[in-house]
Specification:
It holds the Pfam family CarbopepD_reg_2. With 917 residues, this protein is mainly β. The chain is 9% helix and 37% strand. The protein is globular, with a radius of gyration of 33 Å.
Length: 917
């Protein structure tokens, strides 16, 4: 969630002198004093409890105006703005009203459910710390039960999730060493942002451990340096530009709206360096200042390290500041007086309560940020590893199967850090396991943009009984076994159905709502259901998502609670690694079918570090990898089905094979855990009118279309069968845009088009010109060929990066596909016939071929009854709507529609809909 972070802090530091504020706290209705009431200066460590007579006295170096807060359990908190106006002492009386809406702790806890827990997770991510912040594990709300949530619908406005607290929220921040009391006034989360504000009192924690006290001190200093307060002070005092920040004025992007992520390329074009003294600031006469800010200010935090995901080769955080009114006001200490005047994004927009310091915090002048040992960017090894975790979630077309049936599989990948999704696995391994015999069937399927589709064809001779389906990635093997997917898989004896103790289907009130609308019409051989599914969020707004859709005969298929619902699977996202967890990451990420092996040279002079060439067929796929210092190599990215002959050899400078290679098995993870098992009983089917999902009975044909009216596409129009590119410029853009704008649109930065393969060196992209591939190019040859064309000579340039796996290993570094204008210019001819002499050949299994579910069975044949009527594991909405025509066999009276997946911003979709004719 992208959050706009606002904390309202009405606290103005002016001319600071010793001041005293004293007074009385009484009950409004009776006038009786309230002893032990809390009185504090908002957002500071300065506060006190009233005495037995309700009196208080607070002295300190206060600014000319402060926000004073009085609170007492069971009463409405009162806030007063106090102005000293040159006086050394101010007296004030608080009259607190009894809070009649206050609920008891028992009443509050009775309202908590899964929906509340999900909302609390959202609240903590917006309020406390972002999920990837190392401080998140060190800050805790001690009384979360005081928080309530409601969804607010706004007429002609944006709906939002609102949080309120009947009592002050008690927070323990062990990262900075503060015991925090937060009086929440407003909290709301919208789809495109969030905001919260309230009054807060900080109490510095004490520790007998010198190491803990030092850690707190250093962490406070680290969070001050690089903060908005520090930046504002730097602007006010005009500190040297090179010390802590570099400032840039951003200019509009090129005409086509694209900016590259190459910092040096954008410098002095879309980002212009500016000096701090060029920013206009004026005193307002009351100890405050106005800083004028036009457009967007880009801030580089020079003395902090950060894994930057905006610019390449930049390793410090970046923030962006916008002042909607053209200015914002601060006090002389740099405290922002009205946060509505400033919109923060980037690094400063990430800061939450976990990193907030009291406004009276004063850094030590002798502190050197270079000496930090506990800054926010220093993650523990387990935290770093946790970001790299992924987990498979699968669901099945039915809850149980019979021997000889096809079990269709769909699913999604879950990522601890969604930003790394495109750099992680693109291959999933599926095993069917029994406790006695181990693995009895295995399959391998591609992961396409985080989605999974496959099927297991069960042998007719398969023994009925209890099995387990396991799914994992090769990368999973670096992490605990809990990161693998395990679920019961029931194979029934024909003539029987399973029966479990009936459980009420849990409805997740916070999940995306799915509404079904349909019409049925008769045809000669089947009925046609025009099905429309509307996906609505909690505010009944349309929302887009990706999901698995199954439609079954509700009378033939009995539901079973297998414990594999996505709602339970995503709980894994909340489970971090133990601090003691270590991994050498010895199992690489797979981007396709992989080879693991060892090279042995003919003699010692040849050396163990050599390029290994891998070829499938007559250069149908190919690539090169380097061995390590021991001669071992890892190759991945091949893409094909069934088994193929793969040629492997080391090549010398004369392109002749030498030495020998030996391939090793990738192996499989050990079971090592108790296998899940369902408790059910077999019940004989009273009627013989039941059917099986046998894939062989289906014939997959296209719907009838008159051949003479069908419009055929050329191979070039279909991108030579490789599908849609990730980025593209067309003929008109090639003629009108500048080379800079074209390169920005295509993402051509330097010598690569983006390395999306975790920890791998990818070489140059695959070049395809008018359908002809140019394999094994050196970097110089690649760019010489590419630069031999001028843009007016070309019809289109298409770039594949995230979708490059379809090209196999050849597209491991991405693909640039060029189509010239009607063959205007022909590039150099390259001999592509493969000379296999001297290569060793290995039979390597590829992706598992499986029968696709026949969504369009033959139109000219009677459609027989089947348990599974429709199956789509890759379903997607368009503007919150999914529409499909489903062919329903005659004789089916009830349909069960099951929808399971997630919205594009991660919310749960989980609904079962019954349809009766």
């Amino acid at each position: 969630m992208r959050a706009l972070y606002f904390i309202f802090l009405f606290f103005a530091f002016g001319d600071i002198t010793a001041q005293t504020v004293s007074g009385l706290v009484i009950e409004k209705d009776t006038g009786l004093p309230l002893p032990f009431a809390n009185v504090f200066v908002n957002n500071t460590t300065q506060g006190i409890a009233t005495d037995a007579e309700g009196k208080f006295n607070i002295s300190g170096d206060f600014p000319s105006q402060i926000e004073l807060v009085a609170s007492f359990v069971g009463y409405v908190t009162e806030v007063k703005m106090i102005s000293f106006e040159g006086k050394s002492e101010v007296k004030v009386t608080f009259e607190l009203s009894f809070n009649e809406s206050n609920l008891t702790e028992i009443e509050l806890k009775s309202k908590r459910d899964k929906s509340w827990e999900r909302n609390l997770k959202t609240f903590e991510e917006v309020f406390l710390a972002l999920p990837d912040d190392p401080y998140k594990s060190q800050i805790e709300i001690l009384n979360p039960w005081v928080i309530d949530f409601e969804k607010v619908k706004v007429k002609n406005g944006k709906n939002y999730l609102k949080a309120s607290a009947q009592e002050p929220i008690h927070i323990l921040n062990d990262a900075l060493g503060y015991d925090i009391t937060y009086y929440l006034e407003d909290f709301r989360v919208l789809r495109d942002g969030s905001r919260f504000y309230g009054q807060v009192f900080y109490e510095a924690m004490e520790s007998n451990s010198l190491a803990t006290s030092s850690r707190w001190k250093e962490a406070r200093q680290a969070n001050y340096y690089g903060s908005l307060k520090h930046l504002n002070q730097s602007i006010l005092l005009n500190t040297p530009d090179s010390s802590d920040f570099a400032l840039f004025k951003t200019k509009p992007a090129p005409i086509d709206g694209f900016r590259s992520n190459d910092f040096l390329q954008e410098l002095n074009k879309t980002i212009i360096p500016i000096r701090k003294d060029s920013i206009l600031r004026r005193p307002l006469g009351d100890g405050t200042f106005r800083i004028f800010l036009q457009g967007t200010l880009e801030v580089h935090h020079l003395k902090k390290e950060w894994t930057n995901d905006y610019y390449t080769t930049i390793y410090h955080p970046i923030s962006w500041l916008q002042a909607p009114e053209g200015f914002y006001d601060v006090d002389r200490n740099g405290v922002l007086l009205n946060p509505t005047q400033l919109v923060l994004s980037g690094y400063l927009g990430r800061r939450r309560v976990a990193r907030a310091l009291p406004l009276d915090f004063v850094p030590t002048t002798d502190f050197k940020i270079e000496e930090l040992i506990a800054d926010e960017v220093i993650m523990s090894r387990s935290s770093q590893l946790n970001r790299l975790r992924e987990k498979v979630w699968l669901t099945l077309s039915k809850p149980y199967f019979y021997p000889g049936e096809t079990a269709w599989i769909g699913g999604q990948m879950l990522y601890q850090d969604a930003f790394l999704a495109d750099s992680l696995s693109r291959v999933v391994h599926v095993d069917l396991i029994t406790e006695d015999s181990g693995i009895i069937q295995s399959a391998t399927f591609p992961i396409q943009q985080g989605k999974i589709s496959g099927a297991l064809v069960l042998p007719k001779e398969m023994k009925p009984g209890d099995y387990v389906i396991r799914a994992y990635t090769h990368w999973n093997r670096n992490f605990p076994m809990d990161d693998q997917f395990l679920a019961p898989f029931v194979v029934m004896e024909e003539g029987y159905i399973p029966e479990m103790e009936k459980e009420a289907l849990e409805v997740f009130s916070d999940a995306i709502m799915v509404k079904a609308d349909y019409t049925l019409s008769d045809s000669l051989n089947y009925r046609v259901m025009d099905l429309k599914l509307d996906f609505l969020d909690g505010f009944e707004n349309p929302i887009d998502g990706e999901f698995v859709l199954s439609i079954t005969d509700a009378d033939q298929v009995v539901e079973m609670n297998q414990g594999i619902r996505l709602e339970h699977a995503i709980e894994w996202l909340d489970e971090g690694l133990p601090e003691t967890f270590q991994s050498s990451l010895s199992h690489p990420v797979e981007y396709g079918i992989s080879l693991k092996g060892k090279f042995t040279p003919e003699n010692k002079r040849q050396g163990l570090i050599q390029p290994i060439t891998i070829v499938r067929g007559d250069l149908e796929d190919y690539g090169q990898v380097m061995t390590d210092s021991l001669g071992y190599f890892w190759a991945t990215g091949l893409s094909y089905q069934d088994t193929a002959q793969i040629a492997v050899a080391a090549m010398n400078e004369k392109l002749r094979p030498f030495g020998s290679v030996e391939l090793e098995s990738l192996g499989k993870p050990e079971l090592g855990v108790a296998l899940p098992k369902l408790t059910y009983r077999k019940v004989a089917i009273s009627s013989k009118d039941y059917f099986l999902d046998t894939s062989g009975d289906y014939i997959l044909l296209e719907e009838f279309v008159k051949e003479e009216t069908r419009e055929r596409e050329t191979m070039a129009e279909r991108n030579y069968g490789y599908g849609a590119p990730d980025r593209e410029v067309n003929e008109e853009q090639l003629l009108t845009l500048s080379p800079y704008a074209i390169n920005a649109r295509l993402g051509l930065n330097g010598s690569t088009i983006g390395n999306y393969n975790f920890g791998q060196k990818t070489g140059v992209p695959l070049l395809i010109i008018d359908g002809t591939q140019y394999p094994f190019l050196s970097s110089d040859d690649f760019w010489n060929i590419l630069e031999s064309y001028t843009y007016p000579e070309l019809k289109s340039i298409k770039v594949y990066t995230f979708s490059a796996p379809i090209f196999g290993m050849a597209g491991y570094a991405g693909v640039i596909m060029i189509q010239t204008r009607d063959g205007f210019k022909t590039g150099p001819k390259i001999e592509t016939k493969f000379n296999s002499e001297g290569f060793q050949f290995f039979s390597i299994p590829g992706f598992t071929a499986f029968p696709e579910f026949p969504k369009s069975p033959p139109s000219d044949r009677y459609l027989t009854k089947k348990p599974t009527i429709y199956w789509d594991p890759l379903a997607e909405t368009t503007d919150g709507v999914f529409e499909v025509k489903v062919k329903v066999p005659y004789g089916i009276d009830r349909l069960r529609i099951k929808v399971e997946g997630r919205s594009l911003d991660g919310e749960l979709i989980d609904q079962v809909i019954q349809i009766e004719k």
